[in-house]
Amino acid sequence: MTFLFGRPETRSVAGPEASERLSAWGRGDNVALMGDSPADALRLIPVYSAVAGIAEDIATTPVRAYRDTGDGTRSPLGRQPEWLATPAPWGGRIPWLHQALTSLLLRGNAYGVVVATGSNGWPSKIVWQHPDRVTVTEKVPGMPPEYRVGNVPVPAESMVHIPAFVLPGSFVGLSPVSLFRVQLTKSHKAQQYAADFFDRGIMPPGVLKNTQQTISAAQARLAKSRFKAAVADRDIFVTGSDWEWTALQVPKDDAAFLEAIQAGATEIAAIFRVAPEDIGGKAGGSLTYSTVELNELKRNRRTLLPWTRRLEESLTACLPRPQYVRFNLDALARADLKTRMEAHEIALRTGMETNAEGRALEERPPLTADEIAEWQANYRSTSPTITVTAPKEAP
């Protein structure tokens, strides 16, 4: 759900008080979300891996604005919207998208405030707010809610609000960190136990026991010092009949924290809909017949597509009709060279792309007239149905 103004008469949000209000709202410098232990959630390796992986994949995915031509085709805008190139007064598009996705994934909502508009009255700068500083009051069912960022009220038409999982009758998305607090707390405790076990030495490595007599504390310290010196550098230890060394093993109950950590990662993978093995969990099925490309396609469809669609719908509302925004997820599932060349050949034969378009996708310049003549003279016989012409020079 997105509310945008896009009208000159509501530009007060981006007026002279904008800098003061931004100072009151905060600029997102605090990377740790507040409340309900989301900061602790980010400290969990599986949570960080899942959130960072999704946010970085989408933030680095090519995204462009297009115009619907009305005949079932689209044409990219010659001049992309300002907020798509430089969406905020500071930073670039990648960190801007990363902020929105981090907020969505951990808090279930992304809140952006339009702080500047262009000459056409549509947004030119949007600043994502820390979700824990935003208060949403839903008074009348079916009517836009009231927003406050800190102590500053923000008109609904000036707020870009992207919710994730929304219950009927509400505008606000549910927070995964709050919903799954029990699972995250369990994983945090298992991770903390592991750290205590290895770093603080909860259990000694073994017991050195005198079987003939009871010794004093001073004698115990001296014996321990001499024993450690004797076995330094894994040297051989020689003793008589009065000393016995027993190496201690990790009890099975204590070693269960390793299984608990893996089980927790598997649960977290289910929450964020990522492959468990990618974040330290246990894979549910065999990957024998999987390929890298198929795994990427599965991740695009199951994990990334729902989030990109939410972003596309909300960001399209920042543009005048019939313009719209699209992410190119195909760029993430990049096939091997042989597969790409075969796909280009099929596209050329079926008229789905031109030679220049195919070369552009491979980041190569169009062929010149001389290069086309050389190609046709030497290799044309292998592709009799493909015709290539040199691009016309601009007048």
Protein described:
By secondary structure, the chain is of the alpha+beta class. Among the domains are: 8-179, no CATH class; 204-249; 335-382, no CATH class. 41% of the residues lie in helices and 14% in strands. It has helices at residues 18-25, 38-43, 45-59, 82-85, 93-107, 176-179, 181-199, 217-230, 252-272, 292-316, 337-350, 355-361, 369-379; strands at 63-68, 74-76, 109-117, 123-129, 134-137, 146-149, 152-154, 159-163, 206-210, 243-247, 323-327. A 3-stranded antiparallel sheet has the order 2-1-11. Strand 3 (109-117) and strand 4 form a beta hairpin. Helix 3 (45-59) packs across helix 5 and helix 3 runs parallel beside helix 9 (252-272). It is flat. The two termini are 47 Å apart. Mean pLDDT is 75; it is low at 1-35.
Give the topology, please.
Layout: H1 18-25, H2 38-43, H3 45-59, E1 63-68, E2 74-76, H4 82-85, H5 93-107, E3 109-117, E4 123-129, E5 134-137, E6 146-149, E7 152-154, E8 159-163, H6 176-179, H7 181-199, E9 206-210, H8 217-230, E10 243-247, H9 252-272, H10 292-316, E11 323-327, H11 337-350, H12 355-361, H13 369-379
Antiparallel strand pairs: 1-2, 1-11, 3-4, 3-8, 5-6, 6-7, 9-10
Helix pairs in contact: 3-5, 3-9, 7-9
Structure keywords:
single chain, 395 residues, alpha+beta, 3-stranded antiparallel beta sheet
- What's the tally of helices? 13
Cα-atom Rg, whole angstroms? 30 Å
Distance between the termini: 47 Å
Strands, total number: 11
* Series of H and E elements: HHHEEHHEEEEEEHHEHEHHEHHH
Strand order of the largest sheet: 2-1-11
Proportion of residues in helical segments: 40-55%
Q: Which residue ranges are poorly predicted, with pLDDT under 50 across at least 5 consecutive positions?
A: 1-35
The chain-level structural class is: alpha+beta
* Beta-strand content: 5-15%
Largest sheet: 3 strands, antiparallel
Compute the average pLDDT. 75
